Every structure is written in structure tokens, then in C-alpha cells.
């Protein structure tokens, strides 16, 4: 045998797996696998209830484990591929809270007379007799739950990835279920499927760039580990071209998920086409995950090259904000408007990232918490305003909503004010934090651009509010549906968070700043 | 000569054989044409260009193709594990069992939901 | 396995921390040329099937280059997973979608191709500048030591997967489950009604208006041997259901040809067949006549 | 031969793939172009592995192949589904998502 000819094999050292530190990730992924088992074993009628219990139970347990992680468990775990540290835990907590709220909205089935927001079977042809029969029998595509759990598991990995390979894998674990979920809407299925295809093609295009960037950084540093890459940037001058290519392509891949200009073109189409609960989930949780990963990559791995990426990021941040708000002003569909608003918020968030300081890190994390919850709430409200053939997307049908259903319009107005960054809402505190961090880092001009963008954004948010409260309802005024307890809870959580983070933000600001900095 | 020569020779042989077969068949085979010869045989279908909507695979076989890929990947993971099984010991066995459990879950799901039924 | 391992060690014995030798140089230039041609062919060919074949060419050549670079296991996986499974799925989907589906190469956005070309050249230039600047003249450390640390290349990779990259390995399982569930959700049409049992099927078969026995077989005459030709009933009319359903649906069924009808009439009148043959010689005797060979019994 | 040639080849293939994504309109061909980009990345990883004398790069390339396979299953399922709904697989065709 060949073995005789070669030297004795080196003995292997197995990684010590710190299960406690990885518990939230393992719980969520385990719950997802359990969800697939449920799909296999539980009969159709009972599936939804069981899946709901597994999903919410899994997410809540993971949240408890995240919050209760003892400080002694913090560290770089799983053979150095995962960093469970303060920012990582804060971001994981944010993702889980946003995901729980989003899952409550996903579970809603009182709003649409036919059932939940998803096709009874995504494989049936639209409008076929088969589909009508499935709708009549009240079937629902319960695979939505395990798929969402896989996406959440990917997000939890994404924000703690400390290694280029795990970063890439986590990106895919997060994205693949979302591509699928985007194409499963009950109403306007073709639009939904086109959104899924667009999201998929552009998303894999972006992850190919991320991968090539990783390859270049691997070639430069000789290691996949973030800490080793940071050391290389510190100790190994030269090969500048390789550094720049690597961080540009890696940054492009991450900025795509964050929906920053010029990688934003998927956002409006996908947000509009996807089932609205999933849109809320994507807009809230994916944004948190993408920025979490971006923060870690930029601060830990590429921190030594900050002088290389900071100028470009100042520009990207400014352009993203301005392009986002200008496009939002011109859109007449409520979901597209919120999508462009999410692009603009990516720009504001980038201000915190590019500040490259502890203040910037904690401000960005606080912003993500505030923005994530507000967005989930806003999309939940969008789901409730319905015309005869589904959601009333066009802005004109929102006219006079303040008169017919003042509570709902008031809640939506609160969310819009928070997104605009009006004082006493979470949006104000969040924006104030990133602006301060950016000015501290010398980005005066980008902050001026941000103030201008905020002013423009206030214009279109207020336009919607004025439309709701001061315009007369049109002849085809949509009906506002009273949701079940699930969605009500989600909206309630979002309202409380929006007010709490706006009026008494200090505890959360302390939590965010107390969790910095990144371990490496 | 070096180590690449056998590979190169093998490649040339394979290519040459394919070329030889095609060319020789064309040269030595008898050529007798008539209309009936172009017809499909008794059980065959008329050799006309397929109209749109025909000549496609049914989509249900996608699941078969998908299962092939999933278990193909299982195979390429099993191979390095099998080669290293003595060194990896219990640790590797448990790691592999966790992985396999996941794939068994996939299999159970497909089976229970009728994804493996042939008709 | 033994042969593979031997090949691995032989290949590994080639370039060790030095310039690649002549054999590798030749391999590189042959395979690199083919790989680039495959890539260009994929982008430029009009039909999706041709694109698929071109990219398969690229992938196989990349597999050879992996093996040439001491990545024996990876070369094999490239062939098994990429060329064997992934491209198979691509071609399969092309068969589902219809092989004929070709791409109109007409630009939908004006000047888009020009812009893409410029972007291509610029991007390539940047990549090349960066890579060449960084590594020009840097020698390879080589994988001799790494490949033999655990015995062979496969064992070295196995050792890494199950130690440092264990988490990545387990996370891959999540990806595979997602893929399988996704494929099921999107393409598996679940039965609304339970499957019919044998007794139910046979009751149905004997219901009024159904065919309890075989349908008439198609008109396979001496002059025409394809199933798309309907059979003739004794009264000279055609039996429509003698042609298989799918052919009828697709419009592939042919008219019973007039020659055959005339023939049938003559036969029924016990006359010799003297109709002019509008199609040329039929099967059977015609082979020999057409080729001018000697006729032999 | 200069070992950098492998990296040059990888850059060329990656650029061809990226250009193909921008030029082609058929969703399946666009997806093939993305696969070419992943392959080019793998070649870079394998070359760097040899340059650095560690197997890490090969392991990454191995995982990328596995990820690509999962991605293909999901992506082609989406494309097949949309095709069944619309009997066409062109990215631009009756595009409801345009403003």
C-alpha cells in the first residue's frame, strides 16, 4: 500500500466545540431540521400548529440562550471559524427579535379570506383546478417555517463568521431559503416568481464576487481567518493591487445583501414581488445580518486597510442615501417606496460602518435594532390594507385611511415618522448616533448629504401621512382587515420598540456600546 | 519522458478512436437511400421536427435529478471520511452521523410526501 | 483507490517548490486554451444547449488543471459533482424547458453589449494588473509536504474537513436540506386525491363508454410503418383511436394515405394492384433496386 | 512557465463569466455564467493553496463545489417553476416588475 511509503501521519487535533457559545445557532438549525421532520411525519391538518410551535419555540429558546450567554463563554470557537463576542451576541439578539416578530406576521391567516400569504402549494399552476381544490381544502405550504428557520440560522452564522469560508457558507444558508420564499406568494404569483428569479440570479452573481474577493484575500494573507488577514494587512506591505481587488469584490458581495447603491437594483422588485410577511422579514432581518457581517469584515479583517476602503465607503454611503430617497419620492407603490427607503437607510447605516470606531459600531448596531423592528411593523401594516384582489399597493388607495381606521393609520404614521427620524421615535436616536460617529470620524460632507437626504425622505414619509389623514377616501377605498392576535402582537412589539427606543433609549444604547468591541 | 505523457497518450488514443470510428463508418458502410428507411420503424414516431410543447421532459423527474445531486454530494463527503476513518475515530464518526442524519431527514421527507413515487 | 493514490503521489512528485516542469507547462497551455475557448463558446453560442456543452468542456479542463496542481481529490470531485451532477441538472432543465429554446441575441438595451465589452476589458485588466503585480515571479511553496502530512491528498483534505472546518461541514447539511426542500416545494405536485387502487381502476375500465380491451392497432401497412398512421376499418374509414393519444394531441397523426385506401379497395375487389406509386419504391423489395445490387432470395 | 499563469487564467474565466451575465438574457445561460465565475474562483483557491503550501484552499474549493450544487438545485427549480407559469425562460420577457 501507499501508506508504507509515506511518513507517519501527524496526529489530528480535534477542535473543542464550545456548545454553549454556539447554542443559539445550533438550536435554530436544529429546529429547522425538526421542522422538516414534522413535514414528513405530521398529517396535513395538524402541521401548521406544530410548525408554529417548533418555529416560535426554537427562536425564543435561542433568544434566551443568546441573552443568557455568560461572559466566560465569549471567544473564538469552532476551530477559530466563529467569533462569539459582544457585537455578535447583540446582533444575534436583534436578528432573533426581528425574526420572531416577522414569523408572527408570517403565521397570519385571517387577513386573506383564502388563508395565509402563501400559495397552498407553490408547485401548482396558478389558477388551476388543482390549486382551487387545495385552497378549498385549506392546505397551506408549511415548509415556509423550516425554510425561514434555516434563513435565520444562516443569519446567526453570518454575523459571527470569523472565517471567509464560514462567511460564504452562511451567506448561502441565509440566501437560498429566501430565494425560495420570495417566489411563493398566494396573490400575483407570476410577479412573485419573477422576483424570486431576479433575487436568485443577482444574489448568486453577488456571492460569486464575494467568493472571488475571498480568494484574492486568501492569496494575499495565506489564511482564511479574519485575524490572520488583519495581521497580513498590518505586517505585509505590498501587493496593493491584490488587497484592493480582494476588499472591493468582498465588499461588493456584502453591499449587495445590504442593498447599497450601486447594488440595490434588486431591492424594489424583490420587496414588491415577495409575499409581504417575507418582505418584512427580509427588510428587517437580512439588513441586520448583512450589516453585521459587513461590520465584522471591515472592522476585524480589513481594519488594517481602513485607509483604502474608507474614502470609497464615504462616497457609497452618500450616493446610497441620496439615490434611495430620490427614487422613493418617485415611486407610487407603497412596497416599492418602503424598498427604496430601505436603500436610503442602508446609506445611513453605512455612515456608522465607515466611521470605523467603537462609537460607529455601537451606533450602527443600535440603528439596526431600531430599523429592523420598525420595518417589520410597517410591512405588517401594509399587509392589512386590502383591496378586492389582495393588498392595496398603490399609494392613492391609502388616501383617507386616517378617517376610516384611525388606529391603523396612526400606527403606520408612527412607523413612517420613525423611518424619517423624527425626535421621540427610535429613528431619531439611531440617526443621531450614526451622524455623531461619522462627524467624529471626519465625515462632515457625508453627514451633510445625510441631512439633506433625511429632509427629502421626511417629505415623502409626510406625504403619505398627509394623504392618510387629510385626503378624502377615493371610491375604491380599500378595506382594513382586523388581524388575528399574531400580527397584532408583532405590530404591538414594533410600536413599543419604536417608542421605547425613541423616548428611553439609554438602556439600549448602553447595551450596544457595552457589547463592543469585536473579538479577534 | 515525464509523468504527463501517459495521460496525454491516453487522451490522444481516446480522441483518435472516436474520430476513427466515425470516419471509418462513413467510408466503409454501404449507402442505400430510400424513403422508407427514413421512416421510424413500426413502434416509432414519425421523424418530424418536434412542435413546441412536445419533446420535453416532464418536470416531475426534476426530483430524481435533485436526489441524485444530494446523494452525490453525500458520497464525496463520505470518501475522505472513509479514507481517514482510523485517524478520525469516534469524533469523525459522530460528525459523519450528524451529517447523515440530516440527509436521512431529507430522504424521509421526500418519501413521506410522495416525491419518490414514480407515476 | 490504490491506483488513484499512486497517481496522486506520482503527480505530486512533479513540481516541488520550483517552477512547473515542461509536462505541466504543456498541460497548462492545452487545457487553459480549451477552458477559455469553452468559456467564450458558452457566452457566444446562441443555443442554451451549446452553452451547456461548452461550459462542460471548461469544467473538465479545469479538473485536469486541478490534478496538475496536486489537487487530485478536487479534480475528481470536479468531474463527479460539477461535470457529472451539476451540468447534468442544467441539461435536464434545458430538456424540460425545450432544447429548441434559443436566445435572441438582439440587444434589448441599446449599446449594452458594447458596454459589457468595455466593462469586461476594464475589469479583466484590473484583475490581471493586481494578480500579476502581486505574484509575478513568486515561486510556489508546493504541496508536497502538505499532501504527505496525512499520507495522501485525500487524507489531508479529510483531516481538515473533520477538524478545522467541521462547522462548515455540518452547515453544508443545512444547505442540502434547503435545496431538497426547495426542489420539493417548487416541483413536486402533491396528490389532492389519494391514489386509485387496482379494483377502482378495473371498475373504471369496464364502465360504459370505455375500452375494456385493446384499442385497434395503428395502420402499419407494408408501405407505411409508423404509428402515426391510423388504421383502416373494413368499410374504408379510418379508426381515429388507433393512433396513440399523445400523437393526436400534438397533431402528429397523419391522414391515412390515399394510396392505401385505393389499395384496400382493389384488394376487396380481388383485383391486381396497379396504382401508380406516387412515393417511389416502398420497403421490402426496394432496397436492392435502389442500390442496384443483384437481387437474391 | 510562470505559476502566475494559473491566476491569469482564473481572472480571464471570471471576467468571461461576469461579462456573460451582463450580456445574455436566457436565465439558464446567465446561471451557467455564474457557475463559470465560481469555477474561476475555485481555480484561484487551488492555485493559492499550492503557492502557500497548505491544503486550506483546496478545502474551500471543495466546499464551494458543494454549495454550487445546492445553489443549482434551488436556482433551476425556480427557473423551471417560472417557466411552467409562463412558458418562457428569458429574463426580460413580460416583465411585470418594471415601473
Give me the secondary-structure topology.
The complex is a heterotetramer of chains A (520), B (119), C (297) and D (99).
Chain B: H1 4-28, H2 35-38, H3 62-83, H4 85-112
Helix pairs in contact in B: 3-4
Chain C: H1 2-12, H2 22-44, H3 48-68, H4 72-97, H5 112-135, H6 144-149, H7 153-162, H8 166-187, H9 198-205, E1 231-232, E2 238-239, H10 245-250, H11 258-268, H12 286-291
Antiparallel strand pairs in C: 1-2
Helix pairs in contact in C: 2-3, 3-4
Chain D: H1 4-23, H2 27-52, H3 56-86
Helix pairs in contact in D: 1-2, 2-3
List the keywords.
heterotetramer, C: 297 residues, mainly alpha, 2 strands, disordered C terminus, D: 99 residues, elongated
Strand content of chain A: under 5%
Which bin fits the share of residues in helices of chain C? 55-70%
Tally of discrete structural domains of chain A: 1
Instruction: Give me the secondary-structure category of chain C.
Output: mainly alpha
Order of helices and strands of chain A: HHEEHHHHHHHHHHHHEEHHHHEHH
Overall 3D form of chain C: elongated
How large is the radius of gyration of chain A? 23 Å
Strand ordering within the main sheet of chain A: 4-3-5
Description of the structure:
The complex is a heterotetramer of chains A (520), B (119), C (297) and D (99). With 520 residues, chain A is mostly helical. Chain A has one domain (23-123, 137-514). Helix content of chain A is 71%, strand content 2%. Chain A has helices spanning 19-41, 44-67, 86-106, 129-136, 144-160, 164-182, 189-221, 226-235, 240-258, 266-273, 276-301, 306-330, 334-355, 358-384, 401-404, 406-420, 426-440, 444-470, 485-503, 506-514, and strands spanning 75-77, 82-84, 385-387, 390-391, 479-480. In chain A, the strands form two sheets. In chain A, strands 4-3-5 form a three-stranded antiparallel beta sheet. A two-stranded antiparallel sheet of chain A has the order 1-2. Chain A starts with 18 loop residues before the first helix and ends in a 6-residue tail after the last helix. By secondary structure, chain B is mainly α. Chain B has one domain (5-112): Methane Monooxygenase Hydroxylase, Chain G, domain 1. Chain B contains four helices and no strands. Chain B has helices at 4-28, 35-38, 62-83, 85-112. Chain B is flat. Chain C is mainly α. In chain C, strand 1 (231-232) and strand 2 form a beta hairpin. In chain C, helix 2 packs antiparallel against helix 3 (48-68) and helix 3 packs antiparallel against helix 4. The longest helix of chain C has 26 residues, at 72-97. Mean pLDDT of chain C is 75; it is low at 1-18 and 280-297. Chain D is mainly α and 99 residues long. Chain D is elongated, with a radius of gyration of 17 Å. In chain D, 78% of the residues lie in helices and 0% in strands. Classes of the chains: A mainly alpha (520), B mainly alpha (119), C mainly alpha (297), D mainly alpha (99). Chains in contact: A-B, A-C, A-D, B-C, B-D, C-D.
